[in-house]
C-alpha cells in the first residue's frame, strides 16, 4: 500500500510540465494550454482587447522602452493589441514547442511573416537573399520584384555556398517545395549557409513530418493558413526561431502592423490539436493516390516526396484545364492543407505571378496539377480523379 502511494506521488511530482520533453501528439493538444486547468478553464480564452488599462503610466513607459530597445515582450498585459495578444501568444508557444524552437512569432498571413523576416534583415543592412526555386509563387514574386528592397540570387542547392556575399542576410528554401514537391537536404544546405540564417518554409511538411530547426534552419516559416489551421477558414503565418531573432520580428511586427487577429490565433491553436492525426491520415491517402496515378496511362509523371505528406503533384498527358473543370467531389481551388481535397493548376493560379520562363525552368510545367489531399475516403477521391482525367484525355 505504502509503496503504491509513493509511486503515485513520484509520478505526479515528475508529471511533465511545459519544460519536459513530450511527444509531438501530446504537445499538439497541450502546448500553449498548460495553465488552463489552474485558471479553471478547459477551452482557451479569447482576448479581443485592442488596449489594456493601466493606472501606472511610468510603468508603461518603462515597458515600451524595453520593447523598443530589444523587442522583449512586455511582461503582464500587452499595453496595446499591436504589441502582443494573450490568445495569439498561446498559438506562438504551441508552435515553438512543435517545431522545437525557443520562440515563435505569429503574423496575419504567411506573406506577412516572410515580409517581416526580410525587413529584419534589410534593416540590418543585409539586403541580399539567396533562394532556391521553386518557392510558393508569391514568395518568388516578393523576392524577384524587390518590393521590400531585397535583391535575390536564384541558385540550386549546390550553388548556395558560392552565391553568398558579405551582404547576404538570408538563404531561403522550401522543402518539399510548392508546387513540384522537390526536396532539399536541409542539413547540407544549413551547413553551406555558414553564419547566414537559413529560412526553411515548412508549410508542406508541417512539424509532424519534419522539424527543420533540428537540421540547422534558424528560421522555420509556415503559412498557417494551410495545415496548421487545417479547415480552410483562417489566414495566418508564423516564424519559429530563437528568441534573439523573435525579438527583432516582434519589433517589425509592431512597427508594420501585420498582426494575427486573436480569433485567428484561437482557431489556429484549435487546429493544432488535430494536426498530427490529420497529416498522418491525409498522407496515407495521398501515398495511395500517388501510386494509382503513377500507374495510370493518362498521367505522364507523378511527384510525391520521399518524406511523405498529403500533397501530390502530377503531369497529365491531356488538357489540365479539363481536369480542373471535371472534378465534382474534389474542390477546384487554390490553397491547401484543408480537411477537404483541393486541386489547382499552378501555372494558372498559385504560380501565375512568376515569370513564365522562370516557372517552367524550375519544373512548374503547363500540364502540372497540384492536389492537396484531405480526409475523404480514398476510393471516393480516386473515383472523382478518374472521371476528371477522362474529361482531360482529349488533347
Ligand atoms: C500559401 C503559402 C505561403 C503564403 O502564405 P499565406 O498565408 O497565403 O500568405 C507561403 N509559403 C507556402 C509554401 C505556401 O503554400
TrEMBL record:
InterPro entries: Cys/Met-Metab_PyrdxlP-dep_enz, PyrdxlP-dep_Trfase, PyrdxlP-dep_Trfase_major, PyrdxlP-dep_Trfase_small. It is an enzyme of class 4 (lyase). Keywords: Lyase, Pyridoxal phosphate. One of its GO terms (cellular component) is cytoplasm. Its cofactor is pyridoxal 5'-phosphate. The modification N6-(pyridoxal phosphate)lysine is found at residue 226. This is Cystathionine beta-lyase MetC. Its EC number is 4.4.1.8. It comes from Streptomyces jeddahensis.
